[in-house]
Amino acid sequence: MASLHALFGGTFDPIHYGHLKTVQALALEVGLRQVTLLPNNVPPHRPQPEASAAQRVAMVKLAIADRPLFNLDTRELEREAPSYTVETLEQLRAERGAQQPLAFIIGQDSLLSLHKWHRWQQLMDLCHLLVCQRPGYDRTMPTPDLQRWLRQHQTQDASALHQQPAGLIWLADTPLVPISATDIRRRRHQGLSCDDLLPSAVIDYINHHGLYRP
Ligand SMILES: Nc1ncnc2c1ncn2[C@@H]1O[C@H](COP(=O)(O)OP(=O)(O)OP(=O)(O)O)[C@@H](O)[C@H]1O
Ligand SMILES: O=C(O)c1ccc[n+]([C@@H]2O[C@H](COP(=O)([O-])O)[C@@H](O)[C@H]2O)c1
């Protein structure tokens, strides 16, 4: 069987250590050899990003240049429509075949609002979910029904993620990294330093292109 292919979708406005360090820890925890970053185009559910799609991709490329775990898939940027994850996963599933184990990586905040995603109940037919902890977010789902749904899919057996094509949820034991892109943009707007929050090559790009200006 082909090895587990993990995708990590995000707005990455900008990419930061909360993304990179947690997913590196996740990769060790469950044995991921490669993680594909999937920047979205028109986020379906939130205000539009401050940086352009091209700038967000440029920052992702700089961040992963010396991190061989990661590669990049820009397919969502080639569609001028909202980036619905279920549609992207359908496309990947069609390309990779029914038996390929696929996983989508999210943070705990995304898990808590997953039931608001487009056709969210079909996600589990298409992929596993690998959930990284994030400080400040509840560990239980917002309703008993959703908590039951989570328990039905949850596995504690990492090898099952590599053996089954889809349908499992892994609640990772990754480090809590208190960094968000919102906070980085706010710090930049206020003229504060962001030195330990994201790679220096990305900070240089932000400075050079005058992003997130005060
Ligand atoms: N510090 C973090 N720890 C764990 N997961 C994270 C962290 N930051 C982001 N993520 C996860 O990464 C994915 C992409 O996040 P995104 O690019 O929106 O970053 P963000 O910091 O949440 O941005 P914003 O503050 O603009 O919403 C989401 O699933 C999110 O839950
Ligand atoms: O498909 C949806 O309806 C949907 C709703 C919210 C978020 N997503 C995806 O989840 C990933 C993380 O989103 P975000 O906003 O935290 O960057 C990113 O790939 C988004 O496109 C997808």
Automatic annotation (TrEMBL):
Q: Which UniProt keywords apply?
A: ATP-binding, NAD, Nucleotide-binding, Nucleotidyltransferase, Pyridine nucleotide biosynthesis, Transferase
Annotated CDD domains:
NMNAT
Which terms in the Gene Ontology molecular function aspect does this entry carry?
Answer: nicotinate-nucleotide adenylyltransferase activity
* Cytidyltransferase-like domain span: 7-187
EC number(s) recorded for this UniProt protein:
2.7.7.18
Q: Which Gene3D superfamilies match?
A: HUPs
Q: Which pathway, per its entry?
A: Cofactor biosynthesis; NAD(+) biosynthesis; deamido-NAD(+) from nicotinate D-ribonucleotide: step 1/1
EC class, as a word, reads transferase
Q: What chemistry does it catalyse, as a reaction equation?
A: nicotinate beta-D-ribonucleotide + ATP + H(+) = deamido-NAD(+) + diphosphate
User: Sorted alphabetically, which SUPFAM superfamilies does this protein's record hold?
Assistant: Nucleotidylyl transferase (SSF52374)
Per its UniProt record, what InterPro entries does this chain match? Cyt_trans-like (IPR004821), NadD/NMNAT (IPR005248), Rossmann-like_a/b/a_fold (IPR014729)
Q: Which domain of life is it from?
A: Bacteria
**Similarity comment:** Belongs to the NadD family.
Q: Explain the purpose of this protein.
A: Catalyzes the reversible adenylation of nicotinate mononucleotide (NaMN) to nicotinic acid adenine dinucleotide (NaAD).
Name the UniProt record assigns to this protein: Probable nicotinate-nucleotide adenylyltransferase
The organism named in the record is Mixta hanseatica
- Gene name for this UniProt entry: nadD
